[in-house]
Amino acid sequence: MSLKIIMAQLDMLVGDIKSNTQAVLAAAQEALTLHQGDVIVFPELTLTGYPPEDLLLRPSLEQRIESAIQALLASNLDIYMVVGYPRFIDGSLFNCAGVIHQGVLLGEYAKQKLPNIQVFDDKRYFAAGTEPCIVNIKGVQAGISICEDIWHPEPIAQAKAAGAELILNLNASPFHIEKMGTREALLRQRATETELPIVYVNYMGAQDELVYEGGSFVVDAQGNKCVQAPWYENGLYGCEFTVVEDRAQRVEPVVAQIAPAFGVEASVYQAMVVGLRGYIEKNRFKGIVLGLSGGIDSALSLAVAVDAIGADRVQAVMMPYTYTSSMSVEDAAEQAKRMGVQYSVLPIEPMVSAFMATLAPEFEGYGKDTTEENLQARTRGVTLMAISNKKGYMVLTTGNKSEMAVGYATLYGDMVGGYSVLKDVFKTLVFRLARYRNELGYVIPERVITRPPSAELAPDQKDEDSLPDYDTLDAILHLYIEQDQSAQAILATGEFDQETVYRVLRLVDLNEYKRRQAPVGVRVTERGFGRDRRYPITNGWHIGE
Fold it and tell me: Which positions does UniProt annotate for ATP binding (predicted)?
């Protein structure tokens, strides 16, 4: 006997329960008629989308979910639908997965392991389940689990003890660098512990700062990966199992095509594209406008924008001032032409001069400092926001993680915008991604990549006049931000001098107030700014151990 399982690697709109329910029914019908599927497995919390956050606290949630479940039951489809949703049981809210077939809810599982780390807040909303759920699907005893359950041995062992011959695992597992390999190693461990094959179904799409890269896959009872769905592609992907009778019934996956893996640069770049596209489309912006300075950050951001929504919906604006080099003007124009976007050159010198004239009485007696530099950045921010308001385009911010970490950015200036694709991308990775994008098609002028980075807010200004070199800076930031290491632990590596370490860490701590006002952006590391890292703005913590 064979059992064909369809992995529904889909993107849902958070909060749109009615449309998500219709998408489930349409996918189930397609799985049945076009793919001859016996079972279709959807991701975690499919009906609400993920993560629903405090929408789970809305008074009408229970009624909306019950209506959605009734619609699924009323479809009476001859396919087993394994669907994720939140549900109230005896007054408590659980993260559930139900198995529905021909108008009957055959079983319902409540997630047992509730993560409350990094971007996950499950314990804020859900009670933990305690019981396994085993459903007979065409003679196969299928155990159900949800996302975090697979990261712990107990839920799968419990399902095995209850008679499971196969595990169906529903996920909403967001991307970060190296996450793909971590998942594969984890499932290998769970499968070999229990001698059960596991079907791992993941979301594909984006929700605010989180990106889900899909990559649903199957491991056999020995932990070997035998089916791999594509990354960064929506769709329905099949995996077939045979039921073998020997000393005990065994369920074995039939080997199918393995989608090729992504390297670091490819996976991060695609995450940025998917994240930006999802934010623009789901929030119904007409397009994107960004400042194109002739530097590498805005150059990479422009490439991502075009790849996300198309050149016809992207406008690049060069806003030169006295300190803007001819090289920057030339390189920005070349890239805009190569990418086919609308391109405008709007000199800001008249506006800056007007500001300076108006402020002259207030500035009398004070020497020049960063105020004049910030005024240039803020003039550019006002210009971009005006275009945004008039045309309905979202301003794409172009600052990177290295800059945001140490505050090398201007509030209400270059920080203006609705979204940032580089928010969680260190400067050293920006260079690698620019090279990667040019391998796909040459769009970023070579000297944009090779020239020393500069904000061009003062004569002959270079980033490294104010900051350590980016190799050093990013290495320290990685240890402090993503690994939470102390100053002493960082110094103990023997790679950095104390003055540089203390200076960088102090800058990170001082600039929390800026990051709280920064736009949301794609999360690509294990510890991004935003949901991942929540430090108080006002605090008296001393740098040290």
Answer: 291-298, 398
Q: Is 337 annotated as a binding residue?
A: no
The catalytically annotated residue of 147, 148, 239, 456 is 147
The beta-carbon contacts of 428-433 under 8 Å, at least 24 apart in sequence, are: 428/402, 428/470, 428/471, 428/474, 429/268, 429/474, 430/296, 430/297, 430/300, 430/400, 431/296, 432/264, 432/265, 433/265, 433/268, 433/269, 433/300
Q: Is-catalytic flag, 111?
A: yes
Instruction: Look at 229 and 534; give whichever has higher pLDDT.
Output: 229
Query: Is pLDDT at 491 greater than 50 in this prediction?
Result: yes
Q: For residue 443, how many C-alpha atoms fall within 13 Å in the half-sphere facing its CB?
A: 24
Q: Is 514 annotated as a binding residue?
A: yes
Residue ranges and CATH numbers for the domains of the chain are 2-261 (3.60.110.10), 265-516 (3.40.50.620)
Token output for 457: 């807010």
How far from the centroid of its chain's Cα atoms is residue 543's Cα?
31
Q: What distance in Å separates the CA atoms of residue 510 and residue 240, rounded to the nearest whole number?
A: 55
Q: Is 281 annotated as a binding residue?
A: no
- Rounded CA-CA distance 256/238 in Å is 9
Q: In which band, very low, low, confident or very high, does the pLDDT at 380 lie, cut at 50, 70 and 90? A: very high
* Residue 423 marked ligand-binding: no
Cα angle, residue 143 at apex, residues 213 and 251 outer, rounded to 5°: 90
293 is in an annotated binding site: yes
pLDDT reported for residue 539? 87
- What mean pLDDT do residues 503-524 have? 94
Give the pLDDT of residue 455: 65
Rounded distance between C-alpha atoms, residue 216 and residue 201, angstroms: 5
195 is in an annotated binding site: no
Determine whether 372 is an active site residue.
no
Q: How many residues does the chain have?
A: 545
pTM of the model: 0.93
User: pLDDT, tens digit, for every residue of 160-170?
Assistant: 999 999 999 99
Q: Which of 111, 160, 401, 423 is catalytic?
A: 111
